[in-house]
Amino acid sequence: QVQLVESGGGLVQPGNSLRLSCAASVSIFSIYLMRWYRQAPGKQRELVAGITSGGSTNYADSVKGRFTISRDNAKNTVYLQMNSLKPEDTAVYYCNALTSNDNWGQGTQVTVSS
Questions:
Q1: Do 95 and 22 contact (CB within 8 A), yes or no?
Q2: For a FRET experiment, which of 22, 46, 96, 100 has its CA 20 to 30 Å from that of 80?
Q3: How far apart are CA 92 and CA 38, in angstroms?
């Protein structure tokens, strides 16, 4: 079981930036896939970005060019840099670690509003 703790959410104005962090309770060096998801009110949870242990990344079309996922194996932490934020990015953001189990954090709220 991997415990994940997200942080870095908050209230920002459109066009601004936030960086989310996801700290894992174990070494993430051997965790093949780490991902960020989000869930807006009344909507299904959706994949935002993923990163493999080899550093390959993928993004939802809605965030390409604005969001960047990265991982620091030494710190057991995955990041999501979010730039040029839009109101439609408002959601609870969840970190996920795919091992033999599907591990989730508790989420961090991101609100983009003027």
A1: yes
A2: 100
A3: 5
Give φ, ψ of 33 to 5 degrees.
Answer: -135, 125
pLDDT digits (tens, 9 = 90+) for 6-42: 999 999 999 999 999 999 999 998 899 999 999 999 9
CA distance 66 to 50: 14
User: What is the C-alpha to C-alpha distance for residues 95 and 102, in angstroms, rounded to an integer?
Assistant: 11
Q: Are 8 and 18 in contact (CB under 8 A)?
A: yes
Token pair of 108 as six digits: 């961090």
The confidence score (pLDDT) of residue 1 equals 86
Cα end-to-end distance, the chain, whole Å: 39
